[in-house]
Amino acid sequence: MNARMSAKIRKESRDQKGGMLRTGEACRILYVSGNTLRRWNKLGIINAYRVGPRGDRRFRLEDVTALLAEARLNSGFGGK
User: Fold this and answer.
1) How crowded is residue 20: how many other Cβ atoms within 10 Å of its Cβ?
2) What residues contact 7, with CB distance under 8 A and at least 6 apart?
3) For residue 15, which of 4, 28, 25 has the smallest C-alpha distance?
4) Which of 15, 32, 48, 76 is the most exposed place for a label (fewest CB within 10 A)?
């Protein structure tokens, strides 16, 4: 993970209580669209937690960073 990505993740985590991210925040970290993230949730690639009366999705910061790290390992790009 590069320094820019690490700083971005630290900022996102400071903004959220309990390490839970909104869909848009998780998308920015993973560089994917909201539709992709919701599809990954339906496929079981990443867990989402439903909150509030509307059932909004929230993603754990730890799950998002783990998925990002796994994607980098599988792509053969280790980065620094």
Assistant:
1) 18
2) none
3) 25
4) 76
Per-residue model confidence as pLDDT tens digits over 35-64: 999 999 999 999 999 999 999 999 999 999
Q: Are 79 and 6 in contact (CB under 8 A)?
A: no
The 3 state secondary structure assigned to the chain is: CCHHHHHHHHHHHHHCHHHEEEHHHHHHHHCCCHHHHHHHHHHCCCCCEEECCCCEEEEEHHHHHHHHHHHHHHHCCCCC
Structure tokens given for 1:
């993970």
Cα distance between residue 28 and residue 25, in whole Å: 5
